[in-house]
Design goal:
heterodimer; A: alpha/beta; seven-stranded mixed beta sheet; two-stranded antiparallel ribbon; 9 strands; B: 352 residues; alpha/beta; eight-stranded mixed beta sheet; five-stranded mixed beta sheet; 19% strand
Chain lengths: 246, 352
């Protein structure tokens, strides 16, 4: 019998710790599949974040380093400059990249570091219990915006892809989602493309992935996936934001 | 050469392959020197967007297997503490230079020794230690840099070189002849891509409480090993001394000038100069107090190392402390007057 589906080689035999309906598990798997298909498992060095994605070193069967909250792009810079022939990517959440690590991400992008950032945007701080993130939508209720995010008091949702697009060092920026099969297929293609940009040395590449967080959004999984289409993607439009041809 | 540039050249000769830094006075000559020398030697230079980014680039370069260095001065060192804590927790080698300036806060750019506590107590969060080396001349600076890289690699721990604005800026003749090619240490932990071997992970997050405790004990045992093996100090005219001055770095250099003058008047003063501030040379102080009852401690701070002297003496002996909190450095003549006053006080007390 022909086997059509199995665990990617780049994933260890471990159970994900993520909540039911969370997008991290899908994204972890997509990265592993892409790395398998591109034959990069023995070249890859992954920089893990703080937050829900921090335990990816328990899942990815490749060289992995943990970084302090927000510092992923700086750490990845140090690795890549020493090992230019490796595939170096950081996995970062929205608090990580758009709040505490804005400077590190922005300047790595501006220098055109040949690294890839997998940027998981679920609009909240997941691991710490659902507080407001820089990407939290206007009027969205979180534990630290109990009356809904008031943009006059708390600022506006940050659109990282659009901000990074103006930087000359960036070569590939795409926003995708993992809330339905068709979107997941596109997300996988975007991850592969971002890695290819790194291998082709065109510049800094980043894939922003809109990802459901049913636990902190106080929704069931189906509602969370719908919410990405109906609400979240209005502020964060899905699609290619920038591509500099190789 | 000035101290900062000499430090840079010594680092290059010691095999430093990566330098990441952010400008701050009084250590800019080092960043500028590395900007020129790193490309010449095929190394990496990045002027980072912040001190935080610089130390995290060091972490990345270190985990990738390169000898990496960053440098800063006091306010910048505060920003680096997060990364230093991670380096220590991950057991990664790195050399971090602090050319201390007056503080706290912005302070000013004049020399000081007021970061002693931050350097020797870990500085960042958690139970960890950094080896701290305190050179007292430009020549010694060039000798301490290769040592710092060797110790960092041997113990897989960050090493801090604690200088000050004066040491960084002063010009002295230097020789680099004694710098040997770097030793090769086992690099079985570095990340190179899992080619032909099982994948590796470098991390400090240990969810299992027992694992976390064991990791902290493991680090503790390493620090004990360092305390046993790596204490360094120099003594000066201690053979017949009945009072021991204790000072480090540039402070010790000024005290040495004062002692020479005091000796002309037959005041029997010698000096113990700690070269490693952590591990602190407690044993030599404990041995000295068996023969010498009075200790004069000078620091360019309001009193930080003096606490280590107190801990070393364990209640024995008499401490005479004189501190200046940075900004103005006393001259050897000023210290000569101060030390002689303490010396005669001690003599009167002993007679009573």
């Amino acid at each position: 019998m022909k086997q059509v589906y199995s665990r990617p080689k780049s994933l260890k035999e471990a159970h994900f710790h993520y909540c039911p309906g969370c997008g991290h598990g899908i994204i972890n798997r997509l990265i592993a599949e892409v790395i398998d298909e591109m034959g990069l498992r023995e070249k890859a060095i992954c920089v893990a974040p703080a937050g829900c994605g921090m335990l990816i070193y328990n899942y990815f069967d490749m060289d992995t380093l943990e970084s302090a909250h927000g510092r992923g792009a700086a750490v990845a810079t140090g690795i890549k400059r020493v090992r230019p022939d490796n595939l170096v990517f950081s996995y970062q959440g929205d608090g990580d990249l758009a709040a505490i690590g804005t400077a590190e991400g922005f300047h790595a992008a501006n220098r055109g570091e040949l690294i890839t950032v997998i940027f998981v945007n679920n609009g909240v701080y997941g691991m710490t219990g659902g507080q407001m993130a820089p990407t939290t939508l206007s009027k969205q209720v979180t534990t630290t915006t109990p009356y809904g995010r008031d943009t006059v008091l708390a600022g506006h949702p940050v659109r990282i892809c659009e901000v990074f697009a103006v930087l000359d060092g960036t070569s590939y920026l795409e926003r995708v989602a993992v809330n339905k099969p068709a979107a997941i297929i596109k997300a996988k293609k975007a991850i592969a493309k971002a890695f290819q940009h790194q291998l082709d040395k065109t510049g800094f590449s980043l894939v922003e992935i809109l990802s459901p967080c049913p636990t902190n959004w106080k929704m069931n999984s189906v509602e969370a996936c719908k919410w990405i289409d109906e609400v979240m993607s209005k502020k964060f439009p899905i699609g290619l934001v920038k591509e500099v041809k190789c | 050469m000035n101290g900062n540039a000499a430090l840079g050249e010594a680092a290059v000769l010691a095999g430093c392959a990566c330098y990441f830094g952010y400008p701050i006075t009084p250590q800019n000559e080092l960043t500028e020197y590395m900007a020129k020398r790193m490309p010449e030697t095929g190394g990496v230079f990045i002027q980072s967007e912040s001190e935080i980014a610089a130390i995290n680039m060091v972490l990345g370069a270190s985990v990738a297997g390169a000898r990496a260095m960053t440098s800063s001065s006091s306010p910048g060192m505060s920003l680096k503490q997060e990364g230093i804590s991670y380096l220590a927790a991950d057991e990664l080698p790195a050399v971090v230079v602090n050319m201390v300036r007056g503080g706290p806060g912005m302070g000013n750019i004049s020399p000081a020794q007021s970061d002693y506590m931050q350097a020797t107590r870990g500085g960042g969060h958690g139970d960890y230690k950094t080896i701290v080396l305190a050179p007292g001349s430009v020549q010694e600076l060039t000798e301490i840099v290769p040592l710092a890289f060797e110790l960092a690699d041997e113990y897989r721990n960050p090493v801090v070189i604690l200088g000050d604005g004066m040491l960084g800026q002063m010009m002295e003749p230097v020789s680099f002849d004694n710098i040997k090619p770097p030793k090769v240490y086992p690099k079985d932990y570095i990340l190179t891509g899992a080619h032909g071997r099982p994948s590796r992970m470098v991390r400090s997050l240990l969810f299992d409480t027992k694992e976390e405790e064991e990791h902290n004990w493991k680090l503790f045992r390493k620090y004990q090993r360092i305390e046993q093996n790596e204490v360094r100090y120099e003594t000066f005219m201690m053979e017949d001394a009945d009072m021991a001055a204790i000072a480090y770095g540039i402070g010790a250099r000024i005290v040495r000038g004062a002692i020479k003058r005091l000796r002309q008047e037959n005041l029997k003063i010698g000096m113990i100069r700690p070269i490693t501030l952590w591990p602190f040379p407690a044993k030599i102080i404990q041995e000295t107090v068996k023969k010498v009852s009075d200790f004069f401690v000078f620091e360019m701070s309001t009193g930080q190392m003096v606490e280590d002297v107190k801990l070393s003496l364990e209640g024995k002996g008499h401490i005479h402390f004189y501190g200046r909190p940075g900004g103005v450095i006393p001259t050897p003549i000023e210290l000569y007057r101060i030390i002689s006053r303490h010396y005669y006080q001690a003599r009167r007390r002993k007679k009573q």
